[in-house]
Amino acid sequence: MNKRGLSAGLIAGQVGPVALYIAMIFALSSLSQSRLSPPASWMAIPNADKLAHLLEYAGLGALGLRALFLKGNGLELRRALPVMIALGGLCGLADELYQATVPSRDASAGDLLADLCGVTIGATCARIFLGRGGVLSRVGA
Q1: How far is CA 18 from CA 48, 52, 64, in A?
Q2: Is position 36 within any domain?
Q3: SS3 for 99?
Q4: Is residue 5 over pLDDT 70?
Q5: Which sign, positive or negative, has the C-alpha torsion 124, 88, 75, 69?
Q6: In sequence order, which ranges of 70-140 are alpha helices (DSSP H)?
Q7: Residue 84 above 50 pLDDT?
Q8: Is the per-residue pLDDT at 79 higher than 90?
Q9: 127 assigned to some structural domain
Q10: What average pLDDT is seen over the chain?
Q11: How many domains does the chain fold into?
């Protein structure tokens, strides 16, 4: 396989999942609030929407850190963490600004904070896991 094909494979295996995940986030943001109504049991949890944001962005943080760190991207694990937190924060900001344009949706600083906390938690967990040579460090490497 030539070097160009290998690079395309790395991009598809590392960046592709992150791009799809971000597309899913924005697709969910496109839905009206009424189409996103959670079950009544979920609404019994205080700040359930913030928890949903946190969990959604934790996945982004983990996937993004993996993509930044894995072989071929040139970022050391210790440098990948702050880069991913900054990129995830920008993605959260873009998502909140986008939601402000969607009928029946609104942007909120609380949601943005939950997004940033989620990215930080997900990226930190992935950093710990990758640093120990976990499964995530072998996939696509």
Answers
A1: 25, 18, 6
A2: no
A3: helix
A4: no
A5: positive
A6: 77-99, 109-131, 135-138
A7: yes
A8: no
A9: yes
A10: 81
A11: 1
What DSSP line would sit under 44-63, residue for residue?
TSTTHHHHHHHHHHHHHHHH
Tokens 């996939």 belong to residue: 139
Q: Which two tokens stand for residue 56?
A: 């959604």
How does pLDDT run across 63-75, given as a tens digit for each residue? 999 888 876 555 6
**Domain with 115 in it:** 3-31+41-138
How far apart (Å, rounded) are the C-alpha atoms in residues 7 and 71? 11
Percent of the chain's residues with pLDDT above 90: 44
B/e letters for 85-117, b = 16+ CB within 10 Å, e = fewer, are: bebbbebbeebbeebeeeeebebeeebbebbbb
CA–CA gap between residue 83 and residue 137 (Å, rounded): 18
Question: Contact 96/111 with Cβ under 8 angstroms?
Answer: yes
- Specify the pLDDT at position 8: 63
Q: Are 114 and 89 in contact (CB under 8 A)?
A: no
Tokens of residue 84, six digits:
């991913």
Q: In the chain, count of helices (H) and strands (E)?
A: 7, 0
Is 55 part of a structural domain of the chain?
A: yes
Give the position of tokens 């990129």. Answer: 87
